[in-house]
Amino acid sequence: MSLPDADLSVAPADAGSGSALDRLRVRETWPWLVALGIFVLFCWLLSPILTPFVLGAGLAYAGDPIVDRLQRWHLSRTAGVCVVFLVITLAGLAGLVLLLPMLTDQLRVLLQNIPEWLAWLQNHGLQRIGVSLPDGLRLDAAGFKVIIAEHWSEASGMLKTVWTHVSASGGALFTAIANLLLVPVVTFYLLRDWDELVAWIRGVVPPRALPKIGGMARETDEVLGAFIRGQLTVMAALTVYYWIALWIAGLNLALLVGLIVGLISFVPYLGAIVGVLTAVIAMLVQTQELLPFVWLAVVFGIGQILESNVLTPLLVGDKIGLHPVAVIFAVMAGGQLFGFVGVMLALPVAAVIAVVLRETKKQWLQSRMYSHGAPAPAQAEAVATAGEGAATPPP
């Protein structure tokens, strides 16, 4: 009779201690949540100047494993960073030497074709969609002179507006150049001090939470590193494929279209859609024969099969664990909230959120709230067996 009494006296104490521990965890957690909210608000307010720092952090994250390997070869951290910078600089210069002449030729062809495009638009394109120009109006140099002469009074105000936009664009161009020059400086210092930054972050994590947070950080690092390496390889492979395939198909702007498709292929289906539209417009102006468009359809059809069934499963796989619609939403939400910085951070942040959601689901499935009222495993198995027996018709 005394043993049940002892049990009854222990249970309330355990419940009370558990409740006190939960309240303590809540009191310790909410300041961190407030700090996180303030940090997000701070980033949103400073998003126009964050681009070089985000690019520098991404390059430092990608180059840290290489520098760590060089350190194992008995190089200092600073020397390893200098070696990585030298290799990247030489690779960039080699790429410019190879691609810049071809891009210059493509742009020259693009500018030379503008009069032909306007003539085709006037003589064929507008007629096919049922649009006709006013009498005496032509889409050529003479026609533009007539339009300017007839609307000169309005053109003066328009010129002021254009000049305002050009001035603003000049300031934006200067800012972009300054940010571009700032990226290698930020990358150098972050890459040199990367291990110290990681150690500092690890030092401020509460010791009792370090095993769980450390495991999530390692999982995020593995997922993010594999995804970035795989996605960059897919982008490079698609650029080369569309460049060569469209050149074989006879498209004059094959290199430009291939670069466009490759650079935006990290968003599912967007690269293919933009590439098809760009290639069709370029080919439509270049020629009106049917056969080149058949070759374009073949090129993009093979490209989609290659991307969906070979490159992405082999090189990327399901690294992040997000549905393609979720990836598209992440990119659009990042762009809406933080502009270009948000687009760059969308997939890395999505990878972190995916890891956190998997850990949250695991904790939820192991919680008492989820399992409250559920039958014991043996009882559940007996109920399932009885259900199967009842569903089986008698012989």
From TrEMBL:
Any one biological process term the GO annotation gives: transmembrane transport
UniProt protein name: Putative PurR-regulated permease PerM
Keyword tags: Membrane, Transmembrane, Transmembrane helix
Species this chain originates from: Panacagrimonas perspica
Top-level taxonomic group: Bacteria
One Gene Ontology cellular component annotation held by this UniProt entry: membrane
Family listed: Belongs to the autoinducer-2 exporter (AI-2E) (TC 2.A.86) family.
Membrane topology: Multi-pass membrane protein
Subcellular location(s) per record: Membrane
Transmembrane segments: 32-61, 81-103, 168-191, 240-260, 266-285, 290-306, 326-357
